[in-house]
Amino acid sequence: MIDDNARASRKIAEQRPDLQLSFEFFPPKTDAMEERFWDSIHKLAPLQPRFVSVTYGAGGSTRERTLRMVSSVKTDTGVDAAAHLTCVGSTRDEVDAVVRGYQEAGINRIVALRGDPPEGVGQPFTPHPQGYQNAADLVAGIRKIGDFDISVAAYPEKHPQSADWQVDIDNLKRKLDAGATRAITQMFFSNADYLRYVARARAAGITAPIVPGIQPIHSFKQISNFASRCGASIPAWLAERFAGLDEDPETHALVASAVAAEQVIELLDEGVTEFHIYTMNRSNLALALARILGRRPD
Predict the structure, then answer these.
(1) CB pairs under 8 A, 24+ apart, for 289-294?
(2) I need a labelling partner for 133 at 20 to 30 A (CA). Which of 51, 247, 263, 269 fits?
(3) Residue environment code for 208-238, b if the CB has 16+ CB neighbours within 10 A, otherwise e
(4) How many CB atoms lie within 10 A of CB 125?
(5) pLDDT tens across 221-274, in order?
(6) What does pTM read for this prediction?
(7) How far apart are CA 270 and CA 199, in angstroms?
């Protein structure tokens, strides 16, 4: 029998553990997208997230927009902001110049990623001859420039290019040993995968936080296509829940809310107290998840 008194998700505000939330956005490309970006930011800012991160396009293709949006988020809302950074297709000097630009703009949080090549997710990575060789090398380079809060990526289902679990966990350890503060996972839909991953990391001596990256499913077709390219699996039960809903957005949204709620409640009951939510520049499901986790606007 389930004991509600033992579940963190069933405790009242005064009894709940202190939670940390962060939200991820991407730089808008059009005026309409920018309007939605800011609408979402202003709706989520009162939740007092630890930070809001803004992604960085393949090969640095959104470099200037990322810096502009991150700087504006911090200035306009007071919410701490993190800028993504990759080392694809750039020399060390070019990447270091971006880091110093963040530093000069007052941005002290960076999400440091090896990055995907311009050819797309899942394609082979070839380091620039004069560039950083991998994410751990990039973290070490950032750390030499300043005292940044650095987040790195983790993969609950193993990075597609890792030969085995030992290689994958060793790579995570190198990134953290190089000076990263925490790891944020790629999206996943089986909590067992995340919990096993954390257990593997702890067994390897990794003590840094491994924050689950939660992907609300605004579009099952879009998310499943992306998952197939980045090595994340779609469980059969999940696909079944969304089957036949392509032309029924209202029911799709209700199912998406239920799926995301179920995922974060299970993790909360397992003792997880940090969550990173991939918003797709939309606030509705992120707001709902924050309320389910017990966080309300200040």
Answers:
(1) 289/214, 289/216, 289/260, 289/261, 289/264, 290/21, 290/44, 290/47, 292/9, 292/261, 292/264, 292/265, 293/9, 293/19, 293/21, 293/264, 293/268, 294/13, 294/16, 294/19
(2) 51
(3) bbbbbbbbbbbebeebbeebeeebbebeeeb
(4) 14
(5) 999 998 988 889 999 999 999 999 999 999 999 999 999 999 999 999 999 999
(6) 0.93
(7) 13
